[in-house]
Specification:
By secondary structure, this protein is α+β, with helices and mostly antiparallel strands. The protein has helices at about 20-30, 55-70, 95-100, 105-110, 130-145, 165-175; strands at about 5-15, 35-40, 45-55, 75-80, 85-95, 115-120, 125-130, 150-155, 155-160. The longest helix is centred in the C-terminal third of the chain and has 13 residues, at about 130-145.
C-alpha cells in the first residue's frame, strides 16, 4: 500500500501520561512519529496534539480509532496536506565569518524569506517559518556553504480548512445529551 504523510489532530483533556499512551499506539504499529506538537486548543481545558507520520490509509484509520479509545481523548482525526493549513519554524545558527565572507549566503537567506534574528562576531541566528519542504531546501543550500553550526525545527502546527474544529461538534452533542 502507498504510504503518505498524514497529520493527526487529537483533542484531549490535559492529563499526565496521555502522551505516552498515544505514542505507544504508534510504536505498536511500528510507525515513526515525524513531528509532534502539543499545545492548548481554542477550547478551554482541551489540549491539542498535532502528530505527523508516514502511513497507508488502512493503518492510519486503525491508529486514529485506537487513539480515540483512550479515556481522556475527546476526539482524533487524520488529514492529508491538502486538507489543512500548516507551518513549522526552524532556527539555524550559522557562522558569521562565513556569512560575511560569502554574499551568496545572505542572498540565499533572503530568497527563502528567512530572517536574521541576531548576529554577533561568531554566529548569526536565522529564523525560517514555512512548510517542511521550504525549510529543508534552505538548510540544504546553507549546508552546501558549510556555514551551519546548529539546526532545530519545530513540529508541525496545523489547522483544518473547515470553518470549525471537528471537536466543537462533538462537544456540542455531549452538552446537549
Amino acid at each position: 500500500m502507498e504510504k503518505k504523510l498524514y497529520t493527526l489532530i487529537v483533542h484531549s483533556e490535559n492529563i499526565a501520561g496521555l502522551l505516552n499512551q498515544i505514542t505507544a499506539v504508534f510504536t505498536r504499529r511500528q510507525l515513526n512519529i515525524e513531528s509532534l506538537n502539543v499545545s492548548a486548543s481554542s477550547i478551554k481545558g482541551i489540549h491539542r496534539y498535532t502528530i505527523t507520520t508516514w502511513s497507508d490509509e488502512d493503518t492510519i484509520i486503525k491508529v486514529t480509532k485506537q487513539i480515540e479509545k483512550k479515556i481522556d481523548v475527546v476526539q482524533a482525526h487524520y488529514f492529508l496536506d491538502d486538507e489543512i493549513f500548516m507551518q513549522e519554524v526552524a532556527l539555524l545558527k550559522i557562522s558569521t565569518p562565513k556569512l560575511l565572507g560569502n554574499p551568496l549566503i545572505s542572498k540565499t537567506i533572503r530568497r527563502y524569506g528567512a530572517r536574521i534574528m541576531e548576529a554577533n562576531a561568531v554566529y548569526a541566528v536565522v529564523e525560517k517559518s514555512g512548510v517542511t519542504d521550504e525549510i529543508i531546501a534552505l538548510r540544504t543550500e546553507l549546508d552546501a556553504f558549510d556555514c551551519v553550526l546548529q539546526y532545530v525545527s519545530s513540529g508541525r502546527i496545523a489547522v483544518t480548512r473547515d470553518t470549525e474544529e471537528h471537536v466543537n461538534e462533538y462537544l456540542e452533542k455531549i452538552n446537549r445529551g
